[in-house]
Inverse folding.
């Protein structure tokens, strides 16, 4: 969705993603409702913030800090709402972060931004940025300003001094470095360029081995400075590197003719990477290099204060092995084409939840109106997804309970019906859930396979009927699943269907098995027959982590849903249905 990324990750760098901006030209009930609810009825623009910092404090003993920036909006009441986080830059006191932070800018509002910088404990081994507990990281400082300060600046940039939250007076403030914020209005393009880049005859900068090269691609801002938009993986001991494909959305670079700075560095663990050469080319130039099969010599800029004032041409060359363009339709393109998201829910009724009649039970119904964890998850996720489900009839199941005078059932209709699992609206789910608590006995064990298969069966029937639907199953559970292989088999099979599965873990159980199902680490699920999942369809979040963090259940769970949706559509060659043309009017003379 407009990301620059290189296939496969690398531990040296976390390359952040961006999602395409909301297309506000057409009508979207969910967006309109969200904005109107908060009183936003005027014009607004999608803004993309690029962050860099300088002269940060060094909090590491044997190396330099590994900084990450977190951006918040600050309400009039002082409450903070997290907007996003950058990636972690290893061993750097002067980081230039790749990840962009998106915010909707409103002219008529004062939008206060807070920027906090942390030194991340990289002993965590590839930490999941969105779930990092900030209290466990070393705080490096913070700065605040209004978004209007940035966009009103002629350079659309603002450099702020970092201060400590504990240093309230000018006399006690120390030099903690600075953070610079660039703001650009986001223009959405559906065209993405795929490039495979390689270099030849790179200089060897290492004594006992060869150079470890990587590329950084930067664009120019309106003020003439450059900001990085893409970084490849590091290739060890290689003077003729061929990097994995990278994908550049035209929106990221401005236009096909916009100049880009491509720099090749030799990676060093101390963060002082050696420049091996650079070149300035537009996407149009790179396309020509690809079609002609020619290389472009790299240059080294003149040394400041040196005798040479001209760049030094090198023997090293940059080649473009592949250049192709494709139209990547956005999530909203499909919604505009009448593609429907259907919400489904499955609730854990195993005995480990505790006696529902006792206040310490996860299923306890507080008659004062305070929702339990199950009710909170249903409401928060369902409230978002219901806008995209036209009939608002939601299949709802329970699992792990024993109906009256019956055996344990691992997939029963929550409404008590023998043949129809649907209920009307979020209120209908909550009513059926409370009624089920009175009509079943909690039992076990915890099995996911049957409810996943039930959801997959509905999705399969929809595909057979050629319906434009995508299904989202929310599973809420308190315990470790006991049918991990059966669940994996069901997920692998379901990965070929229009289905995503959101799992919320409630209570204090060990949810490591759930993290295995959520293939965010890049390892594809494999069935007992040896078949691999065609795509990642699971997103898991422990409810307790989300409650204590700066992001909501909805943000955590739904973060990957648009990309999972688009991956399915692209894998299956499904194009969005064009919206119907506006009605023509005839004038009678």
């Amino acid at each position: 969705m407009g990301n620059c990324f290189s296939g496969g990750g690398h531990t040296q760098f976390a390359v952040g993603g961006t999602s395409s901006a909301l297309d506000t030209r057409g009508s979207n009930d969910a967006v309109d409702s969200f904005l109107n609810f908060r009183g936003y009825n005027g014009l607004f623009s999608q803004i993309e913030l690029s962050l860099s910092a300088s002269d940060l404090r060094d909090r590491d003993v044997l190396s330099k800090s590994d900084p990450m920036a977190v951006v918040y909006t600050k309400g009039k009441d002082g409450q903070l709402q997290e907007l996003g986080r950058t990636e972690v830059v290893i061993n750097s006191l002067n980081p230039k972060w790749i990840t962009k932070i998106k915010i909707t800018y409103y002219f008529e509002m004062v939008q206060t931004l807070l920027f906090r910088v942390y030194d991340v404990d990289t002993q965590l081994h590839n930490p999941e940025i969105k779930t990092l507990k900030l209290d466990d990281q070393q705080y490096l400082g913070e700065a605040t300003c209004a978004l209007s300060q940035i966009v009103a600046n002629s350079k659309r940039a603002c450099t702020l001094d970092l201060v400590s939250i504990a240093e309230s007076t000018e006399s006690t403030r120390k030099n903690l470095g600075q953070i610079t914020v660039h703001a650009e209005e986001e223009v959405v393009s559906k065209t993405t360029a795929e490039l495979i880049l390689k270099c030849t005859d790179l200089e060897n900068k290492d004594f006992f081995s060869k150079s470890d090269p990587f590329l950084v691609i930067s664009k120019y801002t309106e003020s003439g400075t450059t900001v990085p938009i893409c970084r490849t993986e590091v290739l060890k001991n290689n003077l003729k590197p061929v990097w994995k494909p990278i994908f550049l959305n035209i929106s990221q670079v401005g236009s096909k003719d916009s100049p880009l700075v491509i720099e090749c560095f030799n990676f060093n663990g101390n963060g002082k990477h050696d420049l091996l050469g650079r070149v300035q080319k537009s996407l149009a130039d790179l396309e020509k290099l690809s079609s002609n099969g020619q290389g472009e010599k790299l240059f080294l800029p003149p040394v400041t204060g040196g005798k040479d004032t001209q760049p030094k041409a090198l023997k090293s060359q940059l080649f473009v092995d592949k250049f192709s363009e494709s139209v990547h339709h956005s999530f909203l393109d499909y919604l505009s084409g009448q593609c429907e998201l259907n919400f489904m829910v499955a609730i854990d009724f195993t005995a480990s939840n505790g006696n529902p009649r006792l206040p310490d039970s996860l299923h306890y119904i507080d008659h004062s109106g305070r929702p339990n964890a199950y009710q909170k998850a249903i409401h928060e996720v369902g409230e978002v997804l219901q806008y995209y489900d036209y009939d608002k009839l939601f299949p709802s199941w329970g699992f792990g309970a024993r109906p009256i005078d019956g055996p344990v059932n691992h997939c029963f209709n929550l409404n008590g019906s023998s043949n129809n699992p649907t209920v009307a609206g979020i209120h209908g789910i909550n009513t059926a859930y409370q009624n089920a608590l009175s009509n079943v006995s909690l039992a076990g064990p915890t099995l996911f396979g049957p409810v996943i298969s039930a959801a997959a069966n509905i999705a399969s029937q929809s595909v057979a009927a050629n319906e434009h639907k995508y299904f989202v199953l929310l599973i809420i559970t308190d315990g470790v699943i006991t049918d991990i292989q059966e669940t994996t088999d069901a997920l692998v099979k379901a990965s070929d269907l229009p289905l995503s599965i959101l799992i919320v873990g409630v209570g204090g159980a060990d949810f490591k098995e759930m993290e295995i199902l959520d293939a965010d680490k890049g390892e594809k699920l494999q069935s007992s027959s040896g078949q691999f999942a065609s795509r990642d369809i699971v997103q898991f979040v422990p409810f307790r982590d989300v409650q204590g963090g700066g992001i909501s259940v909805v943000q955590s769970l739904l973060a990957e849903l648009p990309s999972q949706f688009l991956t399915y559509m692209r894998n299956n060659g499904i194009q969005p249905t064009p919206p119907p043309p506006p009605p023509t009017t005839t004038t009678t003379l």
Notes: The first strand starts at residue 44 and ends at 54. The CA atoms of residues 179 and 218 lie 19 Å apart. Residues 5-43, 546-550 have pLDDT under 50 and may be disordered.
